[in-house]
Write a structure and sequence with these properties.
The protein is an alpha/beta fold. The chain has helices spanning 22-31, 44-49, 73-86, 100-104, 115-128, 148-159, 190-199, 214-220, 231-235, 243-248, 258-274, 279-283, 296-307, 316-337, and strands at 11-13, 36-38, 42-43, 64-69, 90-95, 133-141, 164-172, 204-208, 226-229. The chain has an eight-stranded parallel barrel with strand order 1-2-4-5-6-7-8-9, surrounded by six helices. Helix 3 (73-86) packs across helix 5. The N and C termini lie far apart (59 Å). The model has no long low-confidence stretch (mean pLDDT 93).
């Protein structure tokens, strides 16, 4: 069963550790109403034993999936039940993160070598929840054969009842490469993900890895059901403003401007400021809002210089926007003189 054309999974923003927190997701939701958003990975240990609230979100963030890190079926099931009670729309199992910390915790990409463990987690989680349980994985790890290895991982996962898998089209090298290097050095193999879809036509498959434009996304959608964009969506977030029209044939976000985003996020920051959230914890996610635009460097510089340290001004974005507009107006006047 393929993903329907109106499903939020046709385009999603990847879970990114330390990046896609609740403030980032609120910001991104202003740019795209239709896309699926994912939390950064939250471990079962943090949810069960942590003192903080690792599952908080704004209702405006829906549709929203929790990415869960863990490998103990009982703990995964317990956290799944908590997530459903909190109102998440989906729970995604992390089988793709290559960091040593994750590997030492026996979850993330190393679980590609333990498909039966993943399958047991899925079975126990689905006993506790009605919302979808999905999996995000790589095409392989280390010396695993990309052809047979991926099939051997996916088969028991499908048998356990998963209907949707997100595949990062790179191997993860758990020995010899850092997490950062694992995002770039292993070669992309989109064809392998396409072939997985061909071999499993009833399985919903989204593709992830190295996708930088919406034109790229539309090309992938000829072969798979969904596209997940990561770093490009974070570093150049205004690209999301075109997603609803380009990917979903919807006009939901067509008229959203950068100025409107600044105003809405200022209201959000003022509200969070009253709750003792530091302004920079929110503003840092907006450094790329003027990426590729006149004044983009000024925007980034102003936020960085006036948002960090002891600065904690809830009107930071408005002030930065005034600086950018002044520079743009001066540039326009000079061009008219020429």
């Amino acid at each position: 069963m393929n993903i329907q054309s109106n499903s939020p999974h046709r385009f999603s923003v990847a879970p990114m550790l330390d990046w896609t927190d609740r403030h980032c997701r609120f910001f991104m939701r202003l740019l795209t109403q239709r896309s699926m958003l994912y939390t950064e990975m939250v471990t079962t240990g943090a949810i069960i034993y942590g003192k903080g609230d690792y599952l908080g979100f704004n209702q405006a963030e829906h549709p929203l999936a929790l990415q869960l890190g863990g490998s103990n079926p009982d703990d995964m099931a317990k956290c799944a039940a908590i997530a459903q009670e909190r109102g998440y729309d989906e729970i995604n199992i992390n089988v793709g993160c290559p960091s040593d910390r994750v590997k030492n915790g026996s979850f993330g990409a190393c679980l590609m070598a333990e498909p039966q463990t993943v399958a047991r987690c899925i079975v126990e989680m689905q006993k506790e929840v009605d919302i979808p349980v999905t999996v995000k994985c790589r095409i392989g790890i280390d010396d695993m054969d990309e052809q047979t290895g991926l099939d051997e991982f996916v088969s028991p996962v499908i048998q356990a009842g998963v209907k949707h898998i997100i595949v990062h089209a790179r191997k993860a090298w758990l020995q010899g490469l850092s997490p950062k290097e694992n995002r770039d050095i292993p070669p992309l193999n989109y064809e392998r993900v396409y072939r997985l879809k061909q071999d499993n036509p009833d399985l919903q498959i989204s593709i992830n890895g190295g996708i930088k434009t919406l034109e790229d996304a539309l090309t992938h959608l000829k072969y798979v059901d969904g596209v997940m964009m990561g770093r490009e969506a974070y570093s150049n977030p205004f690209i999301l403003q075109q997603v609803d029209s380009s990917i979903f044939a919807s006009s939901a976000s067509d008229d959203v401007t950068r100025e409107q985003i600044v105003i809405k996020m200022t209201h959000y920051i003022r509200d969070m400021h009253k709750r003792n959230v530091r302004v920079w914890h929110i503003a840092r996610h907006m450094l790329g809002l003027f990426q590729g635009q006149a004044g983009g460097k000024l925007w980034r510089r102003y936020l960085s210089q006036n948002g960090t340290g002891k600065h904690n001004n809830p009107d930071l974005l408005l002030e930065a926007f005034d600086v950018v507009k002044d520079a743009q107006n001066r540039s326009l006047k000079f061009s008219q003189i020429d």
